[in-house]
Write a structure and sequence with these properties.
heterodimer, A: alpha/beta, Rossmann fold, four-stranded parallel beta sheet, 46% helix, B: mainly alpha, ABC transporter involved in vitamin B12 uptake, BtuC, 0% strand
């Protein structure tokens, strides 16, 4: 992974040297702040070598439960460009921007995306719009376009570089989109349903046609009650869902029992709101989506 | 009514498994609890439950939530602590309770250290709290096998065990069965705790051992009856606790122990033998 990113960076640097012609090359990097890891990955891909990206909510952390620290206000103040997801995802952002006294106006990366309504307002509510728009690769391309515009506005000298990077990245996203559709097409139509505790896959569902059904009752507590277990088993049986992804049931023995009794397959981990670090399964956006679709395809394939 | 009381067990296999597991557990642990109580060793069960933690933890580290590894680890750790306690109590000035206290605390600290070294907190919780709702075939066989073994061995050492409860001096004067019976009994304690540990976790395994035993004490003077009541109480707690967990959403393991606790409190108040209400009310005297 590192090698690939490195080669992108090298290519970007070469491009920059060729296109930007001399003097601008020696300039300082553009300081860009993204609110969470997935946005950060988009910015890195568009900005290439010309930008230094930092994120407020890093890999493996949940933006829903994040609370800003004083050091974060400093990061915001130091940034020339601030990229946010919008759609109410970062409820804490407007206050943080005000507190930091930065002159950079936050750029909303979801601008132009048709927001879908949140399926249910349980636990974490972002108003009414569902903010997890990046789960559809079609939307990811809009993110990239918005980020491209923001970078060019902040650093006009790098326009050619950014456009070249963005074009290359968009091509990869197109390929990714095609692969997902192919993978979904390979799954029998009546099997394109899973039960999962994730609430983040609404856009994925709309774009690619795999239904994500919320489980009833299973809680994150360390010990499940008989009622919770009975409910989930009943739900799997009545809805005839071929697979469940139950990350919040942490006891593997219990998961096995549910699988044995309901006849459903138990899927692995799906990543929704954050990337993993370099060593993880989903260090970049593209890796994350590919990982998820692999998990879905193997869980839903007819055995 | 039928639906509320039996429906869950008819409909769901995991409920039947949980019930079978807790009933088997109650039949093994109840009698053990009664003997522990009569020998003023009620807290020994608790101490031993902590003592088996590092063994189970090492088993967990080596092969995850593997039944065999965790059972073997728990058995070894429990027996080592029991043996060391016996040796120290016999060879030094330290009494048995003090020796046990030192070893089980060391053992507990070691166990928590080992678990935290690799696992996250969530893993630790699985070790501390069992999974009565997720009993697989192997675990059920282990629990039932342990209960059977317990009852057989108890039947064999019943006589010396009872005599030692009542008059250890007398037993020593007429027989040399005391020491082996005591050791066998300690081994049974460890075996039952390991069983309970799979179903209810280390913390609550002691509950299904001691609470029904203490309950039985309030209803019977005769030790045989006491054992029967203890086993029955434990089995009923399992059934009622699972039902409550099914209908109200209380976690299953604690639910079972809370039912056992409620039975105990009721017996404490209204028990036939030495219950509080009986002591306060004027007693009817036997009249000729």
């Amino acid at each position: 992974m590192r090698i690939r990113r490195h080669s992108i960076a090298v290519a970007a640097a070469v491009l920059a040297t060729v296109l930007a012609a001399g003097p601008t090359v020696a300039q300082e990097k553009l300081n860009v702040l993204a609110t969470f890891s997935i946005l950060g990955d988009f910015v890195r891909n568009v900005g290439g070598d010309r930008v230094a990206v930092s994120t407020l909510v890093g890999p493996n952390s949940d933006a829903h439960v994040y609370s800003p620290a004083p050091a974060d206000a400093k990061k915001v103040a130091a940034a020339k460009v601030v990229i946010t997801n919008g759609l109410g995802f970062e409820g804490w952002m407007s206050r943080l921007v005000k507190a930091s006294g930065t002159k950079a106006r936050p750029v909303v990366a979801t601008k132009g995306i048709k927001a879908r309504r949140q399926a249910q307002d349980k636990g974490h509510s972002h108003g009414n719009a569902d903010p997890h728009a990046w789960q559809s690769v079609v939307n990811a391309k809009i993110y990239v376009a918005n980020i491209l515009a923001a970078l060019i506005a902040a650093d006009p000298a790098g326009k050619a570089t950014y456009e070249a990077n963005a074009a290359a990245y968009l091509e990869k996203l197109d390929a990714l989109d095609k692969d997902i559709r192919a993978a979904v097409a390979a799954i029998a139509k009546e099997r394109r349903r899973i039960i999962t505790s994730h609430e983040a896959f609404g856009y994925f569902q709309d774009t690619y046609g795999i239904a994500f059904i919320a489980p009833r009752g299973v809680s994150t507590e360390s010990e499940a009650s008989a009622r919770d277990v009975a409910r989930i088993i009943t739900q799997i049986k009545t809805t005839k869902v071929p697979a469940v992804f139950l990350e919040n049931v942490t006891d593997p023995r219990l998961i096995e029992r549910i699988a044995a009794e309901s006849g459903a397959k138990i899927g692995g981990k799906l990543y929704s709101d954050a990337l993993t670090d370099e060593k993880g399964e989903a260090p970049t956006y593209i890796d994350m989506i590919r990982h998820n679709i692999r998990q879905l395809a193997s869980a839903l394939a007819t055995s | 009514m039928y639906d509320a009381l039996f429906g869950p067990f008819v409909e769901f296999e995991f409920m039947r498994r949980a019930l079978a597991g807790t009933v088997a557990l109650a039949f093994g642990a109840g009698p053990i609890g009664v003997f522990l109580m009569l020998r003023r060793m009620s807290l020994v069960g608790d101490a031993m439950a902590h003592a088996i933690l590092p063994g189970a933890a090492i088993g967990f580290l080596v092969s995850g939530l593997n039944l065999f590894a965790m059972t073997a680890g728990g058995l070894i750790a429990g027996c080592v602590v029991a043996l060391l306690t016996g040796i120290v109590a016999r060879m030094t000035e330290l009494k048995e309770d003090a020796a046990l206290a030192t070893f089980y605390l060391l053992s507990l600290a070691l166990g928590v250290t080992i678990v935290s070294m690799k696992g996250t907190n969530i893993d630790l919780l699985h070790v501390l709290f069992g999974s009565v709702l997720a009993l697989d075939d192997q675990t059920l066989i282990l629990i039932a096998g342990n209960a059977t073994l317990t009852l057989i061995v108890l039947a064999l050492i019943y006589r010396p065990l009872v005599v030692e409860c009542v008059d250890p001096g007398f037993l020593r004067s007429v027989s040399r069965a005391g020491a082996p019976a005591h050791l066998a009994f300690l081994a049974l304690v460890v075996i039952n705790l390991v069983s309970g540990f799979h179903a209810l976790g280390t913390l609550l395994a002691v509950g299904i051992m001691m609470l029904p035993a203490a309950t039985g004490r309030f209803w019977a003077r005769d030790i045989t009856l006491m054992i029967l009541i203890a086993a029955g109480c434990g089995a009923f707690s399992g059934y009622a606790g699972l039902l409550i967990s099914f209908h109200s959403g209380v976690p299953a393991g604690p639910g079972i122990i809370l039912v056992a606790g409620a039975l105990y409190v009721l017996s404490l108040l209204f028990g036939h033998v030495g219950g509080l209400v009986r002591q306060v009310l004027p007693q009817r005297h036997l009249e000729a």
